[in-house]
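Chapter summary example.
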Amino acid sequence: MSKKRKYDEHREFKLQWEEEFFFTERNSKPFCLICQSQPSQFKVSNLKSHYDTNHSSFGNEFPTGSSDSRKNKLSTMKLQLNKQNQCYIGIFQRNR
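The structure predicted for these 96 residues follows.
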């Protein structure tokens, strides 16, 4: 019989993951800005694995480091997500 963990790990989102892996926090879960998937935990290994497996060409197009193009792309994607959320909120409120 396997033992279950008796404590909550209290993992938190780290801001550096936004630029490194293009993830942000949404509804207390990690959210990929590129493909809009939601892995279940804030673990750097999960986020890195997702990014390397699914978005390896994205790293070539927008190299990590002090690349302004990468920072601009991140800002654009976050802005698009916020606009999308506002649109959904507006639709939801109109349908009440």
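To summarize the output: The beta strands are 23-26, 29-32.
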